[in-house]
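Standup notes
- HV: blocked on the assembly model, inputs below
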Amino acid sequence: MFRGCTKLSVDNKGRMAVPSRYRDRLVGLSDGCLILTLNPLDRSLWLYPLPEWEIIEGKLAALSDFDKQGRRAKQMMRGYATDCQLDGQGRILLPNELREYASINKHIMLLGQGNKFELWDEKTWQKLREEWLAEVGSESTEPSDSLKSLSL
Amino acid sequence: MFRGCTKLSVDNKGRMAVPSRYRDRLVGLSDGCLILTLNPLDRSLWLYPLPEWEIIEGKLAALSDFDKQGRRAKQMMRGYATDCQLDGQGRILLPNELREYASINKHIMLLGQGNKFELWDEKTWQKLREEWLAEVGSESTEPSDSLKSLSL
DNA sequence: TATTTTTACCCACAATTACCCACAATTACC
DNA sequence: GGTAATTGTGGGTAATTGTGGGTAAAAATA
């Protein structure tokens, strides 16, 4: 399971270094072969090791084409899924299309999210974080049911 | 179960010594592997022994991605969860990101909190404590229902 | 096929991190 | 209360890691 956050930068060739603490695991899992696609729920990107992506692909294939939301999710996630290979320095090349979607230009926040990583434009992420913290802190906002019963 | 509070300092490399009375237990539990993450409810940090964190991770994984609050909680807590390894002197390195979140610079208050520790900037903690004491002391503030029935 | 653009591989630098040793303050023990 | 062990703090050094860029191969375009 992946966790932890790292500030990273994208060089002017569009490459991003994968933090070294994850590299061995990624090479072990799939010889450094990764799948990058868009996150349909937020303006960010998802980065899967190949075997994990194949599980997701299976789930997507099972969605009915007659459910509009399912069809769209399928189209987006599969459509934008790009193969990325770790290079000799442990970097991957981020395709233009995807960088634009997440408005990533130079500074990235990479978040471990269980079976995958989430890639955010740093500014966008900071803003999101502050918004969320304000919301959690305010007494006026009711936590959702699933959160109410959560003990950490 | 962890309890008790300790004043500690962070050196200029960002390291914090874990009090020696906890070390044996932490090494026994998880070979000194700890997870540090943000406390989304206060501006402080949580430090879990790995096995305890894995329980939390399970609870988080169960939250739906389609509930926005659940998704955010997941992103924040997992995203900021950082692996920390006790070094030869029994210290851990506190990542910049997290120190900033809790506005920790030099003096820390470490509180045992059952399954985890809570790390506060000392000044912030002092202030909070005084505020809370004042609030509880004042007759005007109603205790919440769960507190009303509490005998200590 | 020729030209331009994109991608992969290599090397180099600077910043960060891990490991080691040392000191001073605190605590435990006799 | 004095002495010895433990513990928290500081810092030097070497290795690792993230970043940048030059150059050659590959792909795309004309």
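- HV (later): unblocked. The interface with chain B takes residues 1, 3-5, 7, 21, 41-42, 111-114, 118, 128-129, 132-133, 136-137, 143-144, 146-147, 150-152 of chain A (CB under 8 Å). The mean pLDDT of chain A is 92.
- Next: hand off to the docking folks.
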